Amino acid sequence: MKLKDMVLTALLLSIGLVLHQITPPIVGGMKPNFLLAMLFVALYINNSPKNAFLAGVIGGTFAALTTSFPGGQVANFFEEIITAFVVSLLIKLTAKMSPHLSVPLVGFIGTVESGTVFLTIALLVVGSLPVAFPILFTTVVIPAAVINTFVTYICYNVVFSARKVMKKA
User: What does the pLDDT profile of the chain (169 residues) look like in tens digits?
Assistant: First the structure.
């Protein structure tokens, strides 16, 4: 793994942490996880299993530190690692597609998977959710997935445009 890629992954996850921290909770203490969008872009930059694991652990730790959801610390930590590997696989499966299609698709599916895994783990850890699973899914997970679809696509384009400019310099 190149040092440049590791630094860029850390920078993206840090930006995601700030966005995650300042986002207010929507329903039942749950809030959209913008850290995911940055995790997805980091995996597009370096899609190795090692980077997926390390980015998942760092992202999970960051998300756990900022959660206000009951049982969210444990759920966030494990959910981010699982999501990193699922998204890594999705990136490989969509590699032949245009980035204009694959990046938003991966952003949406990855966020839906992440939210589903998060809610499931939180339910198992705490025993009950503050609001019913279907309500949280439709009012938080789906809107977060729509938002992350656009955020992931925009961040992907910004980061990859900057990388092209840096390579020319």
Answer: 688 878 888 899 999 899 877 878 766 665 667 889 999 999 999 999 999 999 999 999 998 988 878 888 999 999 999 999 999 999 999 999 999 999 999 999 999 999 999 999 999 999 888 889 999 899 889 988 988 898 899 989 998 888 888 777 6
pTM: 0.89
Query: 48: which DSSP letter?
Result: -
Distance in angstroms (rounded) separating the CA atoms of residues 56 and 6: 13
Structure tokens at 126: 């705490």
At residue 108, φ and ψ (nearest 5 deg) are -70, -55
8 A C-beta contact, residue 63 and residue 76: yes
To the nearest 5 percent, what fractions of the chain are helix, strand and coil?
Answer: 80, 0, 20
d(CA 101, CA 108): 11
Closest by alpha carbon to 94, among 152, 140, 28?
152
Which structure tokens are listed for 39? 């995790």
Tokens of 73: 């610390």
Q: Which amino acid is at 87?
A: V
